[in-house]
Amino acid sequence: MAKDMTLLWGSGSPPCWRVMIALEEKNLQGYNQKMFSFEKMEHKSPEVMNMNPRGQLPAFKHKNYVLNESYGACMYLESQFKSQGNKLIPDCPAEQALMFQRMFEGFTLNQKMGDVIYYNWKVPEGERHDSAVKRYREALCAEVKMWEGYLQKVSGSFLAGKTFSLADVTLYPTIAYLFRFGLSEERYPKVAAYYNSLKDRPSIKATWPPTWLEKPQGQDVLKDL
User: Fold this and answer.
1) Quick one: 156 exposed, middle or buried, by C-beta within 10 A (0-12, 13-18, 19+)?
2) Is residue 186 within 8 Å of 146, Cβ to Cβ?
3) Phi/psi at 6 (nearest 5 deg)?
4) 46-79 pLDDT, tens per residue?
5) What is the widest separation between alpha-carbon atoms in the chain?
6) Where do the GST C-terminal domain residues begin and end (predicted)?
7) How far is CA 87 from CA 5, 102, 120, 139, 170, in A?
8) How far apart are CA 53 and CA 51, in angstroms?
9) CA gap 80, 21 in Å, rounded
10) Where does residue 124 rank: exposed (0-12), middle (13-18), buried (19+ CB within 10 A)?
């Protein structure tokens, strides 16, 4: 069934990892895949651009249906393969509502994380300001504290309660990215416990970014956050 699927991806990219986790959770192994290097700018290659004109990864196709937005691809896979693998949208209305809320709040976490981690890459040296760095770091700190509070209050081990859901599929890669870039496990114990508790989940372990296995620690950009 997965042989009519193609995924073009890059190692360490949370959007790519989301789709790979979803495919594993739905028992859709054996899909066509190819890894591209961000460092070598391979995501701008004709092969990627042909499927995703934005020149971004992931690029995902099922039959003739192209879904390059990772949230859309994950939701599509759950919708089309409901009865296969693990169910990723809870039946309980309360858990389902919380799942969708946390999923889409994840965009804010992603944005604030990117503002800090990618600042030096995105902003030319002559346009960088210490005040902007300070503002972005404070905003990310407040955001992570909010997620610390969410995990303190939730009834269960997962973001939306007692079952692993699309909220975890979409947010776990972002949270893992935070710790890879030096987020303090001591300062955010609930977020750290969540991160560590899912490391050995089969879908996550099977798709752990190969470049992270080769080089387990990234830059300590978030060490003092």
Assistant:
1) exposed
2) no
3) -135, 135
4) 999 999 999 999 999 999 999 999 999 999 999 9
5) 54
6) 92-217
7) 20, 17, 40, 34, 14
8) 6
9) 16
10) exposed
Q: What is the pTM of this model?
A: 0.95
Residue 200 carries which DSSP code? T
Tell me if 193 is assigned to some domain. Answer: yes
The DSSP-derived string for 112-126 is HHHHHHTHHHHS-GG
Query: Which pLDDT value is given to residue 1?
Result: 67
Last residue of a domain, one of 44, 59, 80: 80
CA–chain centroid gap for 155, Å, is 23
Q: What is the domain-level CATH number for residue 52? A: 3.40.30.10
Q: Are residues 110 and 177 in the same domain?
A: yes
Residues 101 and 204 in one domain: yes
CB count, 10 Å around CB of 133?
15
Neighbouring C-alpha atoms within 13 Å toward the C-beta of 103: 21
Question: Residue 225 in contact with residue 185, Cβ under 8 Å?
Answer: no
Both 66 and 130 in a single domain?
Answer: no
CATH number for the domain that contains residue 117:
1.20.1050.10
Question: Is 103 in the same domain as 13?
Answer: no
Strands in the chain per DSSP E? 5-9, 32-35, 59-62, 65-67
